[in-house]
Design goal:
It comes from Diaphorina citri (Asian citrus psyllid). InterPro entries: UQCC5 (IPR028183). This is Small integral membrane protein 4. It holds the Pfam family UPF0640. The protein has 81 residues and is an all-alpha fold. It has 2 domains: 14-50; 53-80. The chain is 69% helix and 0% strand. It has 4 helices and no strands.
């Protein structure tokens, strides 16, 4: 038997959320869609160091490094054979 920790306020909030009869657990999907869109927007728009760094610039730079390392290793393999 496990102990369950729950909040009575949270339980009331979840029960009061509309759409339980028709959508069941999927009634929370629009909420998570909105949170995901807000997170994506934040990843695009929030910049650090006066606009030099954001998530996508960092990702693109890392992908460029990986691509350059792969090409360099292929070049080294062809030159040694």
């Amino acid at each position: 038997m496990g102990a369950f920790f729950y909040s009575l306020r949270l339980k009331r909030l979840l029960k009061a959320w509309p759409g339980q009869k028709y959508f069941g657990i999927y009634r929370f999907l629009p909420l998570f869609f909105g949170v995901g869109a807000a997170l994506e927007f934040a990843m695009i728009k929030w910049e650090v160091n006066n606009g030099e760094i954001n998530f996508y610039k960092t990702y693109k730079r890392n992908q460029a490094v990986i691509l350059a390392e792969e090409r360099l290793s292929k070049l080294e393999q062809t030159s040694t054979t």
